[in-house]
Structure formats: C-alpha cells, structure tokens
Amino acid sequence: MSFLNLEKFSATPLTRDPFEFIIVPGFLRQEAREALNADFPDIAKPGSYPVSEVSFGGQFAALLEEIQEPEFKAAIEEKFALDLTDRPTMVTVRGRCQQKDGRIHTDTETKIITVLIYMNQGWENETGRLRLLRSADNLEDMVAEVPPEWGTLLAFHRSENSYHGHKPFVGERRAIQLNWVTDAEVVEHELSRHRMSARLKQLNPFA
After folding, report:
1. What are the C-alpha distances in Å from 30 to residues 15, 120, 130, 134?
2. Would you list the domain boundaries of the chain?
3. pLDDT above 70: residue 117
4. Residue 71 · residue 84 · CB < 8 Å
5. Cβ distance 38 to 188 under 8 Å?
6. pTM over 0.90, yes/no
7. Is cis: bond before 18, omega within 30 of 0?
8. What fold, for 6-203?
9. Of 61, 99, 119, 138, whose Cβ has the fewest other Cβ atoms within 10 Å?
C-alpha cells in the first residue's frame, strides 16, 4: 500500500513568488490515517528528533521509507526542476511545540529542499499555522498560511528569501521533516546535534 498521493502532488502547481513552494492538502492517503496515527512516535517534549532517537510502529516506519524512495525524489526533482543525484536526505520528527518555536527564518544554506508533512488530527488553533512570508520581520506579510492538518504537505526550495514562521503555539504539533541537503557531512552534523539535544531532554525532565 502506498501512503503518498503522488498524483495529487504532481497535479498541484508550483508557486514561485516570493520563492518556490508547493502546498498539497491530502498528500497522505486517508485510508492510512488511523494506522499512521497509532504508529506515530510518542514525543513528550519539543524539538526535532532524529528517527533513530524515537520509537514508532511498523506503518510509520513504512511511511518514512516511502518518502525516501526514488519515486518521491523524482516527483520533487520534476516539480522544482532540480537534479538531486547524490544529494543525501535527512529525516526528523516533531511532536510538540514550545513558546519560542516558529521564529521567522529561511533554513540553513546546506538545505536544498525542505518537505514538511503534518500529522495532526485537525487544527482549530489560530496559532501554530506556518506562514510563508515576503520579509524577515513581519509575520503578517504572508503569501500563504499552512494549517498543520493531517496529511498536508509543504515543500519549498530553500533560498535567501524563503522566509517562514508561525505565531507561538504550545502543545502537540506533529510533523515529519525531510530535507535534501548538500552533502553527507551535513547529515552527520545536524543529526548529531539533534541526537545530543534529544538525549539531554531525556536526562532532564524539566528541559
């Protein structure tokens, strides 16, 4: 069973202003919803966690495998007109938000493509909705807002002006982040940093 609706991804046009991005509600197939929700990692604290640092069920493991298979990579390459040959991937998961999350940023220069797949049951909150922005200092100057609802995908080509952020939210906010990055050293550095942070949080119940 495929979890990804690649047909819908391919049919959704790329937005190019002010940077290249695509938003695809329903990217994850609805028939997989119950199983994926049940198998999502139990993450009690904020921050990004390498998949090696969390426990999850078999269906979620299969989803992580599928988003790194050649078919999805080819769809990304076609959509963004990029060649990602020999560009490694990095996958992290998030389960909760804290007050300081959501500050406006562009992502680091070592990231080429960022993919976010949201896995929340619904989203009634006005905060915590990712905004794609025209500037580095104004959350209201947005071109799109992405509610982190179940199955929604956001993918963007990192650039000097790929500004994004959200209003502060504290609580559960589930997401998978997949990046294609410049080289393997980036993966090792970033995942080592996230691993250390995750282990410190496990040791400190107040972190």
Report:
1. 25, 13, 22, 33
2. 6-203
3. yes
4. no
5. no
6. yes
7. yes
8. Jelly Rolls (2.60.120)
9. 99
